[in-house]
Every structure is written in C-alpha cells, then in structure tokens.
Amino acid sequence: MALDLEKLARNIKKFRTDKGLTQQQLAEQLALTPQSISKWERGQAIPELDKLCAAGDILGVCVEALLGNQPANRVLMGIDGGGTKTEFILFDEDGKLLKRLILGGTNPNQHGLSHSLSVLQNGISQLLEPGMELAAMYIGCAGFLSAGYGEKIRQALQKQHPYCKITCNSDIMNIIACGSNTRNCIAAICGTGAVTYANENRRLHRLGGAGYLLDTRGSGYDIGRDVLQSALREQDGIGEKTLLTPLVEKQLGCTVWDAVGKIYQEGNAFVASFAPLAFQAYEKGDRLAEEILRKHAQYQAELIQAAATKYDCGRTVVLSGGIFTGCSVFVQMLKGYLSQNLMVEVPTQKPVYGACLLACELLNLDPTPFIQNFSQQYKTLTEEATC
C-alpha cells in the first residue's frame, strides 16, 4: 500500500492535539526540533521509521493508526454546561454511550472565557482515547450567547480538532432538543435563576433572566428569598404567623436573624435552597406559602404568554430546571395561568441528552439507536461513577 503523506501528516497532528501536546513538547520527547514536527504535520517530510514508532508510543497509538491504515473509532460528544457544573457524554455512531464526566462550571459570564475554555478542553481530553476520531461535538452552555463567547470557544476548539464538526450554543438548546418540537417552541428554565426563550425556527429570543438584581420574580432564588423574608417579618412582629418560620429555622439550625451573615456569605444558591420549604408549607395548607408560589408561577406564565404573542414559535412549552422538574404543584399552578392553546411538556431526560441529539444532527445520523440506548446506559455510567 502506497504511503499517503497527507493522511500521515493529518494523523500526527490529530493524535498530538488529542494527547494535549504542543509541537515543542513532542519534539523534545523525540530529541528533534519543533521545525521537524511542523514539517511532518504539513506533509513536507517523512519521519524515519524509528522516530515514527517512538512518536506512536508517545501518542499512545500504533504505527498503523498514524499511517491511517487502521480504521478509527468515530465518536461524538454532547456537553451541557452551567454556572456550577458541566456534564460530558461520549458516544459512538451506533448510539452506544462510552463515557460520562462531570466537571466544574463553564458559564463564561461567571468564570471568564479562559477558565471556561480550559474546563472544556480538560473534559474533552479526559474522554478521548487513542484511536478515537472525534467527528461531532455539540456544546450547549449558559452564557455562550453573551459577548460572542460561544463563537470564541468554538474557534479555539476547532483549531485543536480541525476535522470535527463543532457547534457552541446556549444551554437552552439542549433543553429544547429534549422536547417534541426542536424548531418552534417556548422554553422556560426555572432553577436558581429563571429565563424564558422563544425558539423561532432555531432563532432564540430571550425574555426575562436579567438576574437577581433586576428580576424579582419567577426563580428559585426569588422563592427562597420570599420564604426567608416571611420568616424575618414574623420574627420582627410585622408579618403573619406562617409554617415557613419553623421550617426555615430547622434548616438553618437557628433563627433567621442569627443566620443573616451566613446567608449573605453563601449567596444565591444558598437562598434558593429554601425554595422547597414553600412547597412543604403549601402542602400543609399554609396561606402565605401558597401566595408566594402563585405569585412566581403567574410571573412565569406572563413571560411564556408574551413569547407566544410576540413571536411565531408554535404552541409547545418546554419546562426545565429544578423548580419545574421537582415540583409538580408549581407546574400545575403555571398551567392555570396559561391560555389553553399552549401545550406544556416537562422532559424527563437530562439536558445533556439534548446536546447528544444535536451532535447526531451535525452528522445527519439517525438518532434512534442513541435514543433507545440512552436511559439504561446513562444509568449504568452514573452508577459506575459513584462506586
């Protein structure tokens, strides 16, 4: 078989970048100059056999793989990123899940561009093995639509994986892909924060989600804040007696006033951790808890109705986030404030599932095998990670 110099050059560069090595680092290990590695990767020189074998050992692949005579295992990756964690799933073209990884947050608005890129690069490097060819990667992360962050990260990753199809978009697209209509729908997230999007033929229009300094309703943070404020008002003698107060004090281990410093120190996520107490008190018939929940459900409904009125985005409403997925009462309250022509869906799959479906779409792959395999194999990977 004739030597394909172009294929050899491409493979040396691919396996080097997959290994996370620079030309300088590979050259030092081979006792060569960086210029020699550069000539190999541009197809301007052929490595001597001993150097080719040594390069294979360093890169963790056989010579046949470097020459391109061994078929590569083509793999895809779906990534879902937020402020606190990023989930990676590696799977093959047959829909078999290979690896799962959880790393820290990748929202560039919170962590900065360089940190977010570093986390993604680290995750990709940990998942890929010698002999794997990364063919498609869909990354949906919070903050990617701000300041061109998503495109900057895509360009950086594309340089490292030049033969991979890469899309970087908002994490809302992962959620939309979990629903029944990925082209036209309304998507609302309600976790620690809250935001609503009108998805008009994959063009996103944002409503709400301006953050806790400007938004005052609709999120887990807002519900948790109202719970704490209710306990404070009762303690001050200016608010009504509520079941929320003993629940708050039990969770804090002290009165609210005694914990004010801790609350400010811990921040938004800590405040949001008190939102479930509103549901507990509501189930016991607490009037104030119901008032809090209805206020925030109504605000979410107003944003969804505004999206339906303002944009041509269909009638499907996809709900995601801990407040929606963990609290059916809140979903029912929200439905009560919506017009009857809107159909509400609460997907059971994780957002990373949607990112994987969108990765399949990049290669025009039939997603059926992946869909059939996902639930059981995801459960297995999760259990293995906790062992």
Description:
The structure is a single chain. With 387 residues, this protein is an alpha/beta fold. It contains 19 helices and ten strands. The chain has helices spanning 5-19, 23-30, 34-41, 49-59, 63-67, 108-111, 113-127, 149-160, 172-177, 220-236, 244-252, 260-266, 268-272, 275-283, 287-310, 322-326, 328-337, 351-362, 368-386, and strands at 73-81, 85-92, 97-104, 132-141, 165-169, 184-190, 194-200, 203-207, 316-320, 343-345. β7 and β8 form a beta hairpin. α2 crosses α3, α7 (113-127) packs parallel to α8 and α10 packs antiparallel against α15. The mean pLDDT is 90.
Mean pLDDT: 90
Secondary-structure-based class equals alpha/beta
Strand percentage? 15-25%
Described by strand count, sense and barrel closure, the largest sheet is: 5 strands, mixed
Uncertain spans: none
Radius of gyration: 25 Å
Order of neighbouring strands in the sheet with most strands: 3-2-1-4-5
Q: Residue share in helices?
A: 40-55%
Distance between the termini: 47 Å
Please tally the helical runs, counting DSSP H or I stretches of 4 or more residues.
19
Q: What is the 3D shape?
A: elongated
- Multimeric status of the protein: single chain
Report the order of strands and helices: HHHHHEEEHHEHEHEEEHHHHHHEHHEHH
User: Can you count the beta strands?
Assistant: 10
Summarize the structure.
With 387 residues, this protein is α/β, with parallel strands linked by helices. It is 52% helix and 17% strand.
Annotation keywords:
387 residues, 5-stranded mixed sheet, 19 helices, 17% strand, alpha/beta
